[in-house]
TrEMBL record:
Pfam families: Sec10_HB, Sec10_N. It comes from Centropus unirufus. The keyword Transport applies. Residues 148-699 form the Exocyst complex component Sec10-like alpha-helical bundle domain. Residues 29-137 form the Exocyst complex component Sec10 N-terminal domain. Keywords: Coiled coil, Exocytosis, Transport. This is Exocyst complex component 5. Residues 40-78 form a coiled coil. The lineage of its organism: Eukaryota, Metazoa, Chordata, Craniata, Vertebrata. The keyword RNA-binding does not apply.
């Protein structure tokens, strides 16, 4: 433990009698002093003893350090001597190794010519046996030594190729020509390879293939291997899956058999594509090529997709340096005759199919499509008829039919979607934007022009004149359905066409075509604004039939029980219904634009309608109630201008009931101060008491 002087002295005093540390004892300072003196002397003696011991240990340590240093010096000297001996030994070993290498080179220089001479002697011996016409050597007669015989025949064949042509022809005339033996042996090796492959002996196949590698028949050996690999491999209906499994199995085996596995595997794949797949594709496509365009296109897309998927799987294997180009050429060789005129078949099918879908729909409606004029005299006659109510010819009665069908639209879009998918897969990258634009043009022709535009034209022609009674405004239903359909068209444009043309000049052309379609439809919709004339006409009929002169000039001023007139109730109900219909039929800014136009015309109608009557005091109150109800109806428009117009009209109606003394004050109010004085005067004139001198004097 750490030494603490205070605690040590305390313990010493506590142990000393008379130290005063224990209770009940008298304090004796002398005894305590004596104890301290004695203890100090003991500590001095202990310190001297420990100091002597420390000095002794230091001397011993110095002595051992000197001895250790001396020993280290001796070891260093021994190490230097050993290192010198090692260098001498290394130099000696290097010298001996140099001598051995030199001797080996000399021996090799002597032995190599000797081995060549021995080999040449053996070949001359075998050559002589062929010349004598009698093969005696065991290597030719023993079937188990076919590998050695093949090596000899291969070397003799190389020698024969260096002979002059005349000598070679003379030599070939001998009964046992080694050229014949060359071919016989080659056939035996191929047969042996075939047998080993059937037995599944990979090691034997590898040995025979290594021997045949130097023979001309090596390629035939590869062909035999490829042929036998395919035996029993294509038993199922899915030739593409069978091909993938076969290539996977052969890829594991070919490296164990051949020294050039990538070449053999590539040749197998080429054989599969050019024989199996090409035959299968031809059978599937030629059956429907001329008779059924729909099935032909489906099969072409499916077969091409499955072929490219198979190619992607084969990319995992080692097929040489440029396997991508290799596989692409194989696919092109199969489908080139079908892809050259693909887009013509696609457009022809899409055109006939779209026409059939539309015709089937119109037939189901018992409707014969008619040519509807969109300009010139017919359009002028229609405009004059609608605006002047002159009987220039009846409008077309559509019987409430919009001639728009979401089922037809979905079918057309589905056919076009499939066409875009086939186009993306089957078109050459350089032709893809152009082909996609042609498909898009077909969609525009049949969906936008033949269906939507025709429905809009028919709807426009079916708009009744403004003086028609109980007219049904089906054009808004046409607008509603056309708007929904165009959203679907726009979605397909963005989802399926844009990815195909986004990086080509055709993008701007497609966008312009789409813009032209939108503008053309907007023109038709703007022309349909004449529907508002019919709405106003219906309101006029309601007011003419329901509004009575006695409504605003009752016979009994004190017995008026209604809050607003029956005409007001029916007009407001009709207007609310039409506002809701407009909101459901349109979207965006079009809703506000049409509602503003309707609201302004509605205000003008009520304004002009109120000008037709004279008002008693109670009648004026009833007119104010009617206008208040019209103003509530105007709030449904949610158009600020329309609400302001009806607020002003409501303020004008106050002139019908205000006391003569207050007329000037009311006319100078916030809502009427900016109005023309003639307008104010015209409303004051509607009062039954206007002729009174007092009223005329106050208003003047």
């Amino acid at each position: 433990e750490p030494f603490v002087a205070d605690e040590y002295i305390e313990r010493l005093a506590w142990r000393t009698p008379g130290g005063g540390s224990r209770g009940g004892e008298a304090f004796d300072p002398k005894r305590l002093l004596e104890e301290f003196v004695n203890h100090i002397q003991e500590l001095q003696v202990m310190d001297e003893r420990i100091q002597r011991k420390v000095e002794k240990l230091e001397q011993q340590c110095q002595k051992e350090a000197k001895e250790f240093a001396k020993k280290v010096q001796e070891l260093q000297k021994s190490n230097q001597v050993a290192f010198q001996h090692f260098q001498e030994l290394d130099e000696h070993i290097s010298y001996v190794a140099t001598k051995v290498c030199h001797l080996g080179d000399q021996l090799e220089g002597v032995n190599t010519p000797r081995q060549r001479a021995v080999e040449a002697q053996k070949l001359m011996k075998y050559f002589n046996e062929f010349l004598d016409g009698e093969l005696k050597s065991d290597v030719f007669t023993n079937s188990e030594k076919i590998k050695e015989a093949a090596d000899i025949i291969q070397k003799l064949h190389l020698i024969a190729q260096e002979l002059p042509f005349d000598s070679l022809m003379d030599f070939c005339c001998y009964p046992f020509s080694f050229l014949g033996k060359y071919h016989d042996l080659e056939c035996q090796l191929i047969q042996e390879f075939t047998s080993a492959q059937r037995r599944g002996e990979i090691s034997r196949m590898r040995e025979v293939a290594a021997v045949l590698l130097h023979f001309k028949g090596y390629s035939h050996c590869v062909d035999v291997y490829i042929k036998q690999c395919q035996e029993g491999a294509f038993l199922r209906n899915d030739v593409f899956e069978d091909a993938a499994i076969l290539c996977q199995r052969v890829n594991k085996q070919v490296g164990e058999v051949f020294s050039n596995p990538e070449t053999v595997l590539a040749k197998l794949i080429q054989n599969i594509f050019e024989v199996k797949l090409q035959s299968y594709v031809k059978d599937q496509l030629e059956e429907h090529r001329k008779s059924d365009a729909e099935q032909y296109l489906k099969n072409l897309y499916d077969l091409y997709t499955r072929t490219t998927n198979l190619s992607s799987k084969l990319m995992e294997f080692n097929l040489g340096t440029d396997k991508q180009t290799f596989l692409s050429k194989l696919i092109k060789s199969i489908f080139i005759s079908y892809l050259e005129n693909y887009i013509e078949v696609e457009i022809g099918y899409l055109k006939s199919r779209s026409a059939m879908i539309l015709q089937r729909y119109y037939d189901s409606k018992n409707h014969q499509k008619r040519s509807i004029g969109t300009g010139g005299i017919q359009d002028l006659k229609e405009r004059i008829r609608q605006r002047t109510n002159l009987p220039l010819g009846p409008s077309i009665d559509t019987h409430g039919e919009t001639f728009l069908s979401q089922e037809v639209v979905v079918n057309l879009l589905q056919e076009t979607k499939q066409a875009f998918e086939r186009c993306h897969r089957l078109s050459d990258p350089s032709d893809l934007p152009k082909n996609a634009f042609r498909i898009f043009s077909m969609l525009v022709e049949f969906l936008c022009t033949e269906h939507i535009d025709y429905a809009l034209e028919t709807g426009l022609a079916g708009i009744p004149s403004s003086d028609s009674k109980n007219a049904n405004l089906y054009f808004l239903d046409v607008v509603h359905q056309a708007n929904t359909i165009f959203h679907l068209f726009d979605k397909q444009f963005n989802d399926h066409l844009m990815p195909l043309i986004s990086s080509s000049p055709k993008l701007s052309e497609c966008l312009q075509k789409k813009k032209d379609i939108i503008e053309q439809m907007e023109v038709k919709l703007d022309m349909g604004i004449d529907t508002l004339n019919c709405m106003i006409g219906q309101m006029k009929h309601i007011l003419a039939a329901e509004q009575k002169k006695t409504d605003f000039k009752p016979e009994d001023e004190n017995n008026v029980l209604i809050q607003y007139t029956n005409a007001c109730v029916k007009v407001c109900a009709y207007v609310r219904k039409q506002v809701e219909k407009i909101r459901n039929s349109m979207d965006g800014k079009n809703v506000d634009t049409v509602l503003m136009e309707l609201g302004v015309r509605f205000h003008r109608l009520i304004y002009e309608h109120l000008q037709q009557y004279s008002y008693s005091c109670m009648g004026g109150m009833l007119a104010i109630c009617d206008v208040a109800e019209y103003r509530k109806c105007a709030k449904d428009f949610k158009i600020v201008l329309v609400l302001q117009l009806f607020d002003t009209l409501h303020a004008l109606c106050n002139l019908l009931v205000v006391a003569p003394d207050n007329l000037k004050q009311v006319c100078s109010g916030e809502q009427l101060a900016n109005l023309d004085k003639n307008i104010l005067h015209s409303f004051v004139q509607l009062r039954v008491d206007y002729r009174s001198a007092r009223l005329a004097r106050h208003f003047s």
